[in-house]
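pasting for ref. prot 1 ->
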Amino acid sequence: MEPPAPPVDEPGHADRPLPSHADLNLLRTFLAVYRSGSFTAAAPLLGLSQPTVTAQIRTLEQQTGRELFTRLPRGVEPTPLAHELAGQVAAPLDTLAALDGGGGPLAGQRAPVHLAGPSELLCVRVLPALAPLVAEGVQLRVAQGLPEPLLEEMGSGRHDLVIATRRPRGRVLPSVPLADEEYVLVAGPAWARHTGEGDVCAALRDVPLVTYAEDLPLVRRYWRTVFGRPLTARAAVTVPNLYAVLSAVNAGAGYSVLPRSLCQEYLDSGRLTLLHAPEEPPLNTLFLVQRPGSGTNPDVARVRELLRAAARDW
């Protein structure tokens, strides 16, 4: 739990302006806390102890005369003044960081780009798109995972870029829409013949359902948005990830809902069959999230721009 805020709103201090000659170390500490979301997460990024980070933020708050962060049970929430201050100091401090080494243009050494996202998308779309940059010397460190943990790790400085299936909340992590992922209802050819051309929902009642989670998130969403009714089926097979779903369905285990990007090759070859083709298939927008401050590494910008260009064809 973060330490309590100092009493910075005493009479005579509430309207004190931002300090005109604030210590750069205090501003660097402020920006690290602002971007990471907690004193604890900012400390290792700065090479400081957590009490030192707390003391420096307290000093800056005393200089401004106003609270910069609201202390929460886990981490901190920037106040409107903190958003204003971050907007003023982020670009100059990032420029100074780039000139001061740590992988910047004067350091003489290129830093790896830390990229994370859904495992299936990374393998099918992202890594093939980035192969030319790797050939040119860009170093990649790639991690997989779900959006929430990846974005939390980004806040602590672990990732430079994250491909997320939802837009991050708040204004701390900037993001841009990357692509729309289409979801399709598929099965092997034998099960497709079993369902025929009638009511798909009725025909699938006797077909095993394969999914990666007990709560059937993709299949339930498909039923709700396409058929306008709740899903009543239960999973016959649950597996760890969408690759395993694809493998099981391709082997004839049953039907499922999958991202088109993951199974398009199987559809093209006839190994899988599209069971339903709605006029408006379910879509999910992918977002490209960049860690503030990661722009000091020029290769981060190269990866970001190539991903945005490649996503136009996804």
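and prot 2 ->
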Amino acid sequence: MSLQILVIGAGAIGAYVGGLLARAGHDVTFGVRGRALQAIAQNGIELLGPRGNWRITNVKAADAASFDTGEYPPPDVVLSCVKLYDAESAAQQWRGALESAGAVISLQNGIDGAARMARGAPSARVFGGLAYIAGQLQAPGVVRYLSNLSSITFGGLGATRDPLLRRFAESVNATAGADALQANVVEDIRSAQWAKFTVLATNAALTCLTRKPAGVVYHDPELLALAEMSIAEVMAVGRAEGAVFAPSQAQDTLAILQAFPPGLFASMHHDLTAGRPLELDGISGLMTRLGRQHGIATPFHDMAYACLKPWLNSIKP
């Protein structure tokens, strides 16, 4: 039996994950508004990339009021895929759906998405999560994915024994083929998030600062040295926060960065060049604050935060 899944936000991550879940047979509704609501309701989701192009039409689009009035049943699982700075306000807006759901999974970038969501919907069963997906939203409901990265990880204390989370993961992993999405349920979601953060924080800072893609940044000796500095800072702060890293984490992170498609930019770079607000405060800004809190020097992320801060709240005219 398919699950009722609500995906809040239809950017690159939300549209990609929700589209593949619908393609696998789940009942997927996108919680969106404005142009995205109209586009998805009329045309569905379109995913374009190296493993194939797919148009997924068996999806629905709704606003928060539709759930508040009972037009849609309470979802089994909610995936929050809005920008990190919108996590709390989106949770407040969708509080009714979140607090009636069986489980809510935060797929925001960064470390504290679940905590932000819990402030907006205090009674919701919120679990931390992360996504390994490289893509860019080209138009409402249309995503160009750029690599074979196609997985989500979520969990927390007791998650691996939770019947709904296990059922969700098993149903996702039952799909095979080029359009498959992998799901991992873990107890120590914080360590998993910090491991990804070694990649995310480094890539966000360097592609924004240089305005150059991965093919340039991670194959230039001086820039590679800055990447290594970033990784070391993230790991030092992460350990102070209780994260446990694999012995090979630094080398693994560099390998991931150097294997990125040559034209890949961080999502924050796309926001920067489009004049949209940045998730900077929850990335390099978080590193700066936690570094000071723990007495750990973070010179690279201090510099990145200071240099990019003038564009923190940029709005394109």
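The chain has two domains: 4-187, 191-311.
The radius of gyration is 19 Å.
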